[in-house]
Amino acid sequence: MLEFKDFTISYEKPVLKALNLKFQPGQITVVSGASGSGKSSLLRTINGVIPYFQPAELSGSLTYQGQDLLALDMAERSRFISTVFQNPKTQFYATNSTDEMAFALENRNLPRQEIIERIDSYTRLLGVERLLDRDIFTLSGGEKQLLAITSVACMNNDIYMFDEPSSSLDREAIERLKEVLLTLKKLGKTLIVAEHRLYYLQDIMDQFILLEDATAASYQPQELDEDFLRQHKLRSLTKIQKSDLQTLDYRAKSMTDKGFEASASLLAQDYSYSYERQPVFDMNLSLEPGINFLIGQNGVGKSTFLRCLSGLNKRFKGRAFYRGRLLKPSYPWLSMIMQDVNYQLFTESVWSEISIVSEDEAAKEAALAQVGLLDKKERHPQTLSGGEKQRLLLAMAKVSDKPIVILDEPTSGLCKGQMERMIEDLQQMAEQGRLLIIVTHDYELIKACGGHIVEFVR
Prior knowledge:
The protein is of the alpha/beta class. It has helices spanning about 40-45, 50, 75, 95-105, 110-125, 140-155, 170-185, 225-230, 240-245, 300-310, 350-355, 360-370, 385-400, 415-430, 445-450, and strands at about 1-10, 15-25, 30-35, 55-65, 65-70, 80-85, 160-165, 190-195, 205-210, 215-220, 250-255, 265-275, 280-285, 290-295, 315-320, 325, 335, 405-410, 435-440, 450-455. The protein has two domains: about 1-230, Rossmann fold; about 240-455, P-loop containing nucleotide triphosphate hydrolases (Rossmann fold), CATH 3.40.50.300. The chain has 15 helices and 20 strands. α4 (about 95-105) crosses α5 (about 110-125) and α12 (about 360-370) packs antiparallel against α13.
């Protein structure tokens, strides 16, 4: 059993205080709460990232099977603790997927044949054989997430921790993730899942921990209902089906469909892209101002299409027009919030960052206030949380005068309250006549926000 007793985690002030929590083998514990409530800090304290890599003041006891975890460094804990981080790219060491699965096992000096058998066993057990021997750089965000999960599963540790594991996954991949969790549970593993999306976990969790106001409270799954969720501003337990979206303005779009509306405001014409001679799409797409959601399975080409439209992919064919004018170069026309926002932060303060796109002091202050970052305007952008970085980029898109705004998986890492604030921002920009393109697997976002939906299908 993993146990916290009277445990406090502090930076400048307590993030979590007086924790008394137990995590049992063969059980799934879901940890949730508002962004910034301490979910990642809790996981990092267990695996040793805190305090060995990220300084913090710790007090109280943290034990596993009676052993003092605080007396063990990160390497020693890695013998029985595995973690899948929110951004899987931060934990990859290889460029080939099979090499990545083997990396930790090789570091444990396991015999070659045992490594091969372990990888074969877990890829079959988890149903991800298609991820073997792939170039990691060609994988979609969801496929990278599944690779990270498989890689840590191959280590056959006692404790598995997952930080927002569904953030980049489509509906089918989330079902596979659920099966993975159940498989590890049957093997007697201790599973801790920090997550905002709760619908896929409600019937498999054994314990629910709510982090709120620097404290932690444990609940049984049957205690969770919609009133409880509303009271604590948590995401819904209801699974929204694709059929629910088809009652909105919905259309399916084949990746080889050349149909388009010639009078549309945005026209991507004769867009064609291949990777290593494998066609990704050969299509036309037309969109109007307002909120446009792009949905579809992991790997279908949604993010690749956005990268081509924004000029980040150079090896594609086709031209894009906005109200009859060629989008080349694209940066005077487009604001983009990537799935990994770390690629887009360049300066040494939040204020300097937003000043890149605007000189209007009042507008910048108002935008930062709306996303809850005005009091952090002197902070270095890389010290912000993942959700705060996304909100900074959203504020920058709002104050820029660019007519097209692109967002790739904008709700990954966002709690319900932040998602609702983001929806208000999206709707405000749409009312201003901007054209928004949002790639997402988050049907809860789409249902709450409304807009036009294009499903990419093969």
